[in-house]
Write a structure and sequence with these properties.
Number of helices: 4
Shape: globular
Strand content: 15-25%
Number of strands: 9
Strand order of the largest sheet: 1-2-3-5-6-9
Largest sheet: 6 strands, mixed
Order of helices and strands: HHHEEEEEEEEHE
Distance between the termini: 22 Å
Amino acid sequence: MITRQEVYQDKFNPAMSLPYNLRQIDFQSAMQDVYDFFFDVNTHLRDKKLSRLEDMLRKANLSGTISDMLTDSMAKHSRSLTGNKFHNGHPDLLVRGIYANDTVKAGEQGIEIKSTLKKGGAVDTHGGRTQWMCVFVYAIDNVGEPVDARAPLIFREVYLGQVTPDDFRNNARGALGTRTSTLDADGIAKLRRSWVYMDPA
């Protein structure tokens, strides 16, 4: 039987100072929106004897889908932020009214949203830059049997920190690859100090 995951309020960092008028309830609501979506979709899929959504999608596609959902939901719940209307613009969330039509190819006033399966929040980006970076770390159960007894997708860690180009290292690029950057050891340590939510397995 598919189960609905709930956000644990006691896992939030009470000492965390959040930028742009963000509140704990904004994160809680966005995470619960994702949980509710997966519950609704997976209930429908399993009723038709189909695989759960997280078992269907490749990891990169799943992370991209979750990031987009979190961005949309945070924009809906936040008091000061809205979605960047520029396709693949940076950052994902903009301070409302700072940029014309809330659209910018590359800006600094806002928050970039990432999601990953990697514990600790290390994610690839398309170049190091000054930004507020928010990383949601989630876990999925795709090995438990029977399938209907598998645990639902769950967020384990959320980080929100301000980083600069000096906090990144450039990754080697293969012949067909796109150049990426990742927070270096000091940069990831800085991000991890700014934790918003922590629910280790």
